Amino acid sequence: xxxxxxxxxxxxxxxxxxxxxxxxxxAEGKSMASEVYTELVAAERTVxxxxxxxxxxxxxxx
Length: 62
Hints:
By secondary structure, the protein is mainly α. It is 87% helix and 0% strand. It has one domain (3-61).
């Protein structure tokens, strides 16, 4: 597998994870304990930052 293919696979998986976390936060956020909500929002932001970095790396390989 080439590096580009590997990055595409990782990015796709991380995008799905990000979507799932966001959906959980939006659907269940009001019923969560505040510390759980805070941690999930932080995880959502972290995954988003990771996706931006992976996309930057992928664009430099092309």
